Amino acid sequence: MRESLLSMMLHFNRQIGRSLADQKERVWGRPGYSQCAALFSQRVLIIGFGSLGRSMAELLKAFGAGITAVKRDTGGFEGHPHADRVVSFDRLEEELPHADHVVLVLPGGAETDGIITARHLNAMKPGAYLYNLGRGNCCREEDLVIALQNGPLAGAGLDVFAEEPLPPASPLWEQPNVLITPHSSAISREYIDLFIQEWIGILREML
User: Fold this and answer.
1) How far apart are alpha carbons 12 and 5 in whole angstroms?
2) Which domains are assigned to the chain?
3) Distance of alpha carbon 24 from alpha carbon 74, whole angstroms
């Protein structure tokens, strides 16, 4: 999943969509790439700092990104070597204006249903990107479309949705600044082997 997130970030930072369009049209558009951004100059806000969020922080930190993590409850949590700061959810709106990339890795369920509101999206830094690799219930897609069309969002990488498969009528399909993957961020040739290894570890702990 963390590699899927990294690929989405690089897609936007390195303007891969533009590269593919230029290649199709046989355009040598080199001057336009001066607006590409490097991860080492950016700040990433990871909302949901369980094992997945921590793994993503580890990878992004290796690229030099600044990492701020958000946990629902930071009680008894002493931080993490790959996060510069760990804050509680009630401080989220203070952090959003400073993040170039906002990553949602929240679990599903009633507690996270609609937890990211239009107010949160509007508080984001102009030109920032949003990624959701957790669960599709945490953010209303209607609010997300508005933020993509009217700002402040420059784009979004989305792997999960409120309804899956994503209905053909969803306006998300039509947004030029959205990268959609079909709930596939964890899928790879190595998936089954990793799954078995994880369960073996769990069984050993139970014995």
Assistant:
1) 11
2) 2-206 (3.40.50.720)
3) 49
Catalytic hit among 2, 54, 120, 135? 135
Based on the residue annotation, tell me whether 26 is a catalytic residue of this protein. Answer: no
Phi and psi at residue 134, to the nearest 5°? -100, -95
Q: In this predicted model, what pLDDT tens digit does every residue of 137-180 receive, in sequence order?
A: 999 999 999 999 999 999 999 999 999 999 999 999 999 999 99
pLDDT 10s digits, 10-36: 999 999 999 999 999 999 999 989 999
**Apex 140 CA angle, 137 and 143, nearest 5:** 160
Q: pTM for the complete prediction?
A: 0.93
80-118 confidence digits (pLDDT tens): 899 999 999 999 999 999 999 999 999 999 999 999 999
Is 183 among the catalytic positions? yes
Tell me the backbone φ, ψ of residue 75, rounded to 5 degrees: -60, 125
Angle between helices 16-25 and 2-13 (to 10 degrees): 60
Tell whether the torsion through CA atoms of 56, 184, 154 and 10 is positive or negative: positive
Choosing from 3, 111, 164, 174, which is the catalytic residue?
164
135 is catalytic: yes
